[in-house]
TrEMBL record:
This is Helix-hairpin-helix DNA-binding motif class 1 domain-containing protein. Residues 36-55, 66-85 form the Helix-hairpin-helix DNA-binding motif class domain. Keywords: Signal. GO terms for molecular function: DNA binding. Residues 1-23 form the signal peptide. Transmembrane segments: none annotated. It holds the Pfam family HHH_3. GO terms for cellular component: type II protein secretion system complex. GO terms for biological process: DNA repair; protein secretion by the type II secretion system. It comes from Marinobacter lipolyticus SM19.
Length: 89
């Protein structure tokens, strides 16, 4: 009985699973993200996501993630919790 195909399959599966475990989530561009995407951030629900989009439409693009503090209802703590997930590219 040859074990090579079984071992190769196990090694492949292991490498796939460990590769996915170490993958970093993609950053969310707050200047282009839609309401549903923004609502998925930590501490930001539907109404705050709508406020972000409304602020962006009224005032233009954000220059930095910290500019979210200008949106009513979003504080520094919410920005800090999401800092690794936000970008303004």
């Amino acid at each position: 009985m040859k074990r090579t195909p079984m071992i190769a399959t196990l090694v492949l599966l292991f490498s796939l699973f460990t590769g996915f475990a170490h993958a970093e989530p993609a950053a969310i561009n707050i200047n282009t993200a839609d309401i549903e995407t923004l609502a998925g951030l930590n501490g930001i629900g539907q109404s705050k996501a709508e406020a972000i989009v409304a602020y962006r439409e009224a005032n233009g693009p954000f220059q930095a993630p910290q500019d979210l503090a200008n949106v009513k209802g979003i504080g520094e703590r919410t920005i800090e919790k999401n800092a690794d997930s936000l970008t303004v590219k």
